[in-house]
Specification:
Blueprint lengths: L1 E5 L3 E6 L11 E6 L1 H11 L3 E9 L2 H13 L6 E4 L5 E7 L5 E6 L23 E5 L7 H16 L2 E5 L10 H11 L5 E5 H8 L4 H4 L10 E5 L5 E5 L7 E3 L12 H15 L10 H18 L12 H10 L3
Parallel strand pairs: 1-4, 1-8, 2-6, 4-5, 8-9, 9-10, 10-11
Antiparallel strand pairs: 2-3, 6-7, 11-12, 12-13
Pfam families: PfkB
EC number: 2.7.1.92
GO molecular function: 5-dehydro-2-deoxygluconokinase activity; fructokinase activity
Length: about 325
């Protein structure tokens, strides 16, 4: 069961400390982009993953390819181009590790990834295609998402969508809203955070908002609440099927924690031989959530995303010494 993550691959410039940028702030380039982060989390936990994206023919593109490969991500479908530069994002850290991003990608190399780049990919039943909303801005990459979803759906693969809103990338919030609602029904499993729910559904109360997400193929909704834990809902129940509290850690940088959470959850689905097309038991759902919460918590303990994500040995050590 392989995971294919489609979308942006970029460089996050991570600051030396929290607070607003000033003359004393120093930045370290760290490889990121939500889809690549998910592919890295999946690979580091023992799964086979691929990144479907494009980087510039520049030093940052080379850094992305090398870092992804070191994390275990198969980069055979990572394209290089001279037509645009690799995307950049500058991170601002706030107290508690929360962050915001300033993106430089107008256009960036990943946005020019086109449907024809998918020609050599042959998904199998049981594989997973994962995508986010960042790359759904009008560009060739958006059309590649449509083509990939059609291709993977026809092969019997599972489709995963992390809403992952980034409003600064959109000139008009209504366009982001429309894009999310176009691509939401195409997925089997959705991840959405508590601060995204109101934008997508108009409801901040999950009891009223979550049911609106069960459109089209959607069977499971993963609802994350940061330090307050996470739940999984299915379309056949009027309440959460499972819940996990967050693991209490001294967070340094939350960059990539949500990506690690969903990557960890998908990796555990594969590790246990489960499928989002099947009916998961309450015990299985709670085990998946607990596993994902650990992966997400560990990822906040260092600056940067991919370098902070655990392998199974580090996950085992964390489990042995860290109660909730």
């Amino acid at each position: 069961m392989a995971l294919y993550a489609i979308g942006e691959a970029l460089i996050d410039f991570v600051p030396s400390r929290s607070g607003k940028p000033d003359a004393d702030m120093h930045y370290t380039p760290a490889v990121g982009g939500a889809p690549l982060n998910v592919a890295a989390a999946y690979a580091k936990l023992g799964g086979t993953s691929y990144i479907l994206s494009q980087v510039g023919d520049d030093a940052f593109g080379a850094q992305i390819a090398a870092t992804a490969a070191t994390a275990g991500v198969d980069t055979r479908y990572l394209q290089r181009t001279c037509e645009a530069k690799t995307a950049l994002a500058f991170v601002t850290l706030h107290d508690g590790g929360e962050r915001e991003f300033a993106f430089y990608r107008d256009p960036s190399a990943d946005m020019l990834y086109a449907p024809e780049n998918l020609a050599a990919i042959t998904p199998q039943a049981g594989d997973i295609l994962h995508y986010c909303s960042v790359s759904l801005v009008p560009c060739p990459m958006r059309e590649a998402h449509r083509a990939a979803i059609d291709k993977f759906r026809a092969a019997g693969a599972a489709i995963s969508f992390d809403i992952n809103l980034r409003l600064p990338l959109w000139k008009n919030p209504a366009d982001l809203y429309a894009a999310v609602h176009e691509f939401l029904p195409l997925a089997d499993i959705i991840k959405i955070s508590d601060d995204e729910l109101a934008f997508v559904t108009g409801e901040s109360d999950p009891a009223r908002g979550i049911p609106q997400l069960f459109q089209g193929h959607v069977k499971y909704v993963v609802y994350t609440c940061g330090a307050n834990g996470a739940a999984i809902y299915d379309r056949h129940s009027d309440r959460a099927r499972g819940w996990t509290d967050a693991y209490r850690v001294n967070a340094v940088d939350a960059t990539g924690a949500g990506d690690a959470f969903i990557g960890g959850l998908l990796a555990e689905i594969a590790h246990l031989g489960l499928s989002v097309h099947g009916d998961l038991s309450d015990a299985q759902i709670n085990a998946l959530l607990d596993h994902a919460a650990k992966v997400g918590a560990i990822t906040t303990l260092q600056r940067g995303a991919i370098n902070s994500m655990p392998d199974r040995a580090r996950l085992h050590d964390f489990t042995a010494r860290k109660p909730k």
